[in-house]
User: What shape does this take?
Amino acid sequence: MMTQKEKEKLFEETKILTGFCEEDKANLIALSPVMKKYADPLAEYFYDRLHRLDTTKAILEAKPGREAHLKITLIDWFNNLFAGNYDINYASDMMQIGQVHVAEKVDQRYLISMYGMVFQFIISALESEYEGKLAEIEPLQNSVAKILSIDMAMMMESYFLELLDSTGWSMTLLKKMATVSISKKLKK
Amino acid sequence: MMTQKEKEKLFEETKILTGFCEEDKANLIALSPVMKKYADPLAEYFYDRLHRLDTTKAILEAKPGREAHLKITLIDWFNNLFAGNYDINYASDMMQIGQVHVAEKVDQRYLISMYGMVFQFIISALESEYEGKLAEIEPLQNSVAKILSIDMAMMMESYFLELLDSTGWSMTLLKKMATVSISKKLKK
Assistant: This one.
């Protein structure tokens, strides 16, 4: 597992690379009341999409009540995107989401695909909400893109570390082995 | 490594989850001539951003000429997004990018952060190119969001499998171990 310090480093690095700043924080907070009414429709749309694929449909239907429960957690996550607390607790929450997906055997490919879908959904919401006024929409959607990238980077990192953790191996060891192995392969 | 069949499955699954269809393909092909002139500016912007972080800056500067070479590969990748060949060869190319990043010791957190940045860049390009006409921009940016999600899902999957491959362990074994380990942890 990651130490508090490693979590902070990860969070800071993703903020720097995405360019997340105070203006983004202010934009997301300003969106909070606007976005609340889109939480339920997003949850409907999101799980409807997951029904299109046998694998994800089977995960949803494996336990009675699971889908209804997941909709609530998705709505919480969505509202939290705009809650303005982008601190280490936020990072920890995101990382726990990664862990849960390992526990529930959801492949990372599905997580990544669904992030893209959420982003599209939010952009459409912004476009109808701000009646096509691009000057208003553009900075807002940039802030949304940044927080979603940060979220995804943290979630995927914890997902990966969680899988690794069960082996008892360190990331350093794994990376060393992989670098040797792949360099040989690519030279072939 | 993945078999041809597994690659095809991954590609199909991500297409279904993102909702990628013939219309998206047509949109991306239509964008090809429009987007060509943004390839160089994107490469400048992309590597400029990577200079903001000591870790990624060090990777770029580790070998003379590396950054110039990487700019060329980024431009190829970008142009390929709009080339219209979304077949198994496309998937294989994306997956090789994942392998290369393992070989070059680039952490997945950086890859994910930078995908977000590329998407923002393309949206801004669309907005200036179509002079703020949302009715034209919206379907195009949706298609871009889909292909980037598909790309990222494939790249991250190959990245992950490449790391795993060096251990000689199977994904099935790793997942079984992880599920047991994490379920216990979350119940605590």
Observations:
- Chain A touches chain B through 66 residues (CB under 8 Å).
